[in-house]
Amino acid sequence: MQKLKSLTLWVDMHGCPNRCLHCWLGHGPGGGMDEGDLRRAAGAFRPFAEEFEIVSHYREPDYAENYRALWDLEAALSDKKMPHAELMSVWRAARDPDYVPWLRRLGLKACQLTLFGGEAMTDRYTGRKGAYRDILRGIELLLENDIQPRLQAFVNQETIAEMHLVEELLRTYNIEHAFAHQGSCTGAAAELYDVWPTPETLERMPPLLTALSLKHWKAKSLRKVFGETEQALYKKLAHSKSTHSFVTDTPYIFVDHKWDVYPNNGGPFPHWRLGNLKRDGARAIMERYFNERSPAQAARRSVPLGGMVRACGDPDSRKLFVQSDYEDYILEKYCEREISL
Ligand code: SF4
Question: 315: which of 119, 142, 236, 264 lies 20 to 30 Å off by Cα?
């Protein structure tokens, strides 16, 4: 079997305290794995790549009680170790006084936090009461530790009503880096399709958040950031004959808490499943990856995009999508409708 140039394995050892409505990973349960499990996953996949890296989470980082030990173990089991992502466990930051100083010692210079509007809206969209207060505490701790907070705001027909509250927060804490977008309409976020933003939604964006978003995305207009209407994309793609292979020699692969394995082109959903590490072993799973045997890989490889768009798109919709996100949305919808597992 060919050897990969690099492989990054993400293991859902401890799940997530949140149930965000925009979560592209969906809300499956996670957790219950121990350090021995991380060693076993690394040992199984390491032979298939020249350069191997393992990460102990793919949901909220550092949510595990033993996050420091896991960070060190990841380094010991990996050929290279990426710097800490500019993300943190807001849940932990608000409860563990050693956590943000630890991030600082790791060299973190900036960190992203997610808002949906004011307190009630953010709690509801994060799926956890108290999330907004934790975010405020997180901002304060980042500033105290000389780490720049960067705010991400998810915009749709519902949250747009409270984007001015995100602006108020930017002013209160003098935060200079923020951006808005709609995210991808896959996983749990597919349920938000009915309130997905339209051109009319963007007309209601407040000025400061607009200006900071344009700066962040290096874009001249919000339409460049939020993309085209589904109507326009449908017209453009309805007769596309394109197919696509997701196989690369530098893949990222997910392992969930039940040892099911997925390529991370999509979320950890049945139609992306490559197999179960305990039952099938890593060799059979890698063979399925290379041969595009997960149902979603096989569909995108063999069904022309235009056919999927005609089966699952809406030619009259004014919802806004970046084209690559629309293709992902259509593939997920196609798999859910057409593939019985
Ligand atoms: S978006 Fe991130 S923090 Fe929210 S539920 Fe999904 S994994 Fe957890």
Answer: 264
